[in-house]
Structures are given as C-alpha cells and as structure tokens.
Amino acid sequence: MELNGIVIDDSFAEAFPMKGTRLVITAHNLEWARHAAVATTGFATSVIACGCEAGIERELSPEETPDGRPGIAILIFSMSGRELAKQVEKRVGQCVLTCPTTAVYAGLFEGDAIALGKNLRFFGDGWQTSKVIGGQRYWRVPVMDGEFVAQETTWVTTQAVGGGNLLLLATDTAAALAAAEAAVAAMKQLPNIVMPFPGGVVRSGSKVGSKYPTLGASTNDAYCPSLRELAAKSELGPDIGSVMEIVIDGLTDTDVAAAMRTGLKTLIERGAASGLKRIGAGNYGGKLGPFLYHLHKLVPGMAEGRS
C-alpha cells in the first residue's frame, strides 16, 4: 500500500498483556509536579531491564485534581501485578515523597488494589495520621516543608497492553527524527497511553535472542542501515538511511490502536517529501503476544486493525 508517496508495509505490530496503573501527582505549582513525575518515570523505558515501563500521560489543571492544585498524570506498566506494586512503592517513595510540596493520588479506581501510601506512611515514624474522605483513606506524613499526602491505595488494570509500535524508515536521520517527533506530538494528545522511551522514540529496536546465550534481546540487524550488505537478511533498500521506532503502552488495546492510527495519519499527511519513505512495524511472527495491530487496517478510513 502506498499513500502520499509513503509505502505502508503489509505488516503488523505485535503487543503483549501488561498490568497498568495511573497516578496523579500534584504540587504547589506545575513545575514541581513535573519534577516529581519526570523522576518517578525515569529509567522506565523497557521491562527488559527496568522492571516497568512508564511515562507522563498529561498535565492536569487544578480543577482536575483531588486537592485543587496543578498536577501531572503518569502511567506505569509492568508484566505482573506484584512487580508493578514494587515499582510503584519504590518510585513514589524515592521520587514523590522526596519532592517539595507534592502529594500523590490514585488515578484508576477499578481493578486490583495495591499500596500507594499504605506502607510509605511509616516514614512518619509514628507521627503520621490518616483521614477517610469519600470512602478513601489518605495518609498525612509530616515532612520538613509541611506534610506529604498520599492516598492509601491505587488500582491496577489487567487490560493494559505493551509493545504497540511503528517503524519509521527515512532517507536520513534528520528526516526520521522529524517524522518521529511529529507522530509523537500527535499521539501525546490522546489519553490512556504513554511512549516510554526518551522523547517517545527508540533508535535501538531489538529482536528476540542473541548470538550470546545470556542475552534475551539484541539489535534488530534487519533494520540497521550499516548492516544492509552484511546481515543475513535486511529489510532496508538503498534509499533508507535511518530508522526510528515509536513504542506505545496503553491501558487497553483500543487505546494502543487509536494511538497507532493517529501516528499513521500524521505521518501519511506529511508525505514522502518529508523524507519518510516507509512505515513498518515490529513483530515476532505472532510468538510474542496476542495483540496484533495490522498497519493496513489501521490506516485512517480502513477497518479496525486489531486481531
């Protein structure tokens, strides 16, 4: 399929089930809420080595937060509920509790409950107090700038999906980056998704396995321009000088599909004159996960692309 001069591969992105939660971080102003959110979602690009995948979902106005202050919504995903609970507690304890003026609240209210402030309250060394408001318990922990407020629990959805993706094949790095930046900017306008890599973009796409037995993943040599003439199989023609990947995690498979569709629409509208020549997707022949997002079906105007 070719649209506006860009070839859309007859391929699909393969994604897998995850557990996910949303946290709402508020602070005296948006700057401090963002400091806490950036730190909390740091080093969370891939479950391969980080334990979780996380990112900033969006900014929240005072009218949208429980305490009437500016806030940031973040999403955190992991492969198991147990690992997610561990990551939430560690990250909130080290990156939100420590950040001036912040408070933290649940952003989901259905699913399995996990601790949010339930255990962090013990930092108060016996001075902590709690209050139940609207059926929810909130902990107040004395700290040097006043008090740290944390809702006792947050909730985890088991419907989350990780690993939606688009591969952007362009003439050179500048064109690939510009395409990725435009797609990420459009996709960020959607709720319930994050793109966990730096700037939403990853240049080190991986394949399953390696020549080294201890490694579970290694460079995706079929998409490395420098290996076009060396790898056993290359997916790149002579007109492709750079490839970027966008990875999407969402609270549901519908959210991931919507994000991929928005990314495709943005990229197609920019056209081949932008330097983007092809759009592909990463998959492992259906061996990695049950969520398959077919690019041709996700193109705007086509039928739903999931299977």
From TrEMBL:
<comment type="subunit">
    <text>Homotetramer.</text>
</comment>
<dbReference type="InterPro" id="IPR002770">
    <property type="entry name" value="ForMFR_H4MPT_ForTrfase_C"/>
</dbReference>
<keyword id="KW-0808">Transferase</keyword>
<feature type="domain" description="Formylmethanofuran: tetrahydromethanopterin formyltransferase Ftr N-terminal">
    <location>
        <begin position="1"/>
        <end position="143"/>
    </location>
</feature>
<dbReference type="GO" id="GO:0005737">
    <property type="term" value="C:cytoplasm"/>
</dbReference>
<dbReference type="InterPro" id="IPR014053">
    <property type="entry name" value="ForMFR_H4MPT_ForTrfase"/>
</dbReference>
<feature type="domain" description="Formylmethanofuran: tetrahydromethanopterin formyltransferase Ftr C-terminal">
    <location>
        <begin position="146"/>
        <end position="298"/>
    </location>
</feature>
<keyword id="KW-0554">One-carbon metabolism</keyword>
<comment type="function">
    <text>Catalyzes the transfer of a formyl group from 5-formyl tetrahydromethanopterin (5-formyl-H(4)MPT) to methanofuran (MFR) to produce formylmethanofuran (formyl-MFR) and tetrahydromethanopterin (H(4)MPT).</text>
</comment>
<comment type="pathway">
    <text>One-carbon metabolism; formaldehyde degradation; formate from formaldehyde (H(4)MPT route): step 4/5.</text>
</comment>
<dbReference type="InterPro" id="IPR023447">
    <property type="entry name" value="ForMFR_H4MPT_ForTrfase_fd-like"/>
</dbReference>
<dbReference type="Pfam" id="PF02741">
    <property type="entry name" value="FTR_C"/>
</dbReference>
<dbReference type="Pfam" id="PF01913">
    <property type="entry name" value="FTR"/>
</dbReference>
<dbReference type="InterPro" id="IPR022667">
    <property type="entry name" value="ForMFR_H4MPT_ForTrfase_N"/>
</dbReference>
<dbReference type="GO" id="GO:0030270">
    <property type="term" value="F:formylmethanofuran-tetrahydromethanopterin N-formyltransferase activity"/>
</dbReference>
<dbReference type="GO" id="GO:0046294">
    <property type="term" value="P:formaldehyde catabolic process"/>
</dbReference>
<dbReference type="GO" id="GO:0006730">
    <property type="term" value="P:one-carbon metabolic process"/>
</dbReference>
<keyword id="KW-0963">Cytoplasm</keyword>
<protein>
    <recommendedName>
        <fullName>Formylmethanofuran--tetrahydromethanopterin formyltransferase</fullName>
        <ecNumber>2.3.1.101</ecNumber>
    </recommendedName>
</protein>
<keyword id="KW-0012">Acyltransferase</keyword>
<comment type="similarity">
    <text>Belongs to the FTR family.</text>
</comment>
